[in-house]
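TOKENISED FOLD:
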Amino acid sequence: MSDFDITFIDKNFAGWVISDDLTDGIENCHLIYVCDFRTNDHQLIGIRKADFDTYNLSYPIESFCSSVCELTPRSIQSMLTPHEQMVFHSALVGYIKLTQTYSVWRQSAQENDTLHAILNIYPSTNGQSPLLRPVMTSSDELIMTVDHIKEISDEVRGIDMQNHPEWF
């Protein structure tokens, strides 16, 4: 049985609730793990590698960030319309591809590597917009477990709280 067969059969693979659109070829997807510290929710999103390179990057990173932060709570609750889901995925990819963190990952990644992008969303402070914090990583696992993602996400948040207290 392949990893794909497992994800197709077990909708709770690695602790994630796998949506039907993810189970159709997850091994061909870049994976985005959204960790929303505003609500303490987590979500796994897969974007096909072939589609990842075709997303339009003609907007500033702030627009993508705003859309991700605005649409995440509804996405986690599976309340996005098909059009909103398309906008959300475009914003996720646009944001990721415009970060320095992604550029560094691309330089060391092999052609067929799967991107495992963790996006921490920190609550707004002092009237500012919520903050989106990217972490790019690689893994030998098809899908990183919820516990592992939480561990990395919490570690990064701790470092951010020490180095950037103004974010909190």
About this structure: The two ends are 46 Å apart (CA to CA). The longest helix spans residues 146-163. The CA atoms of residues 125 and 167 lie 7 Å apart.
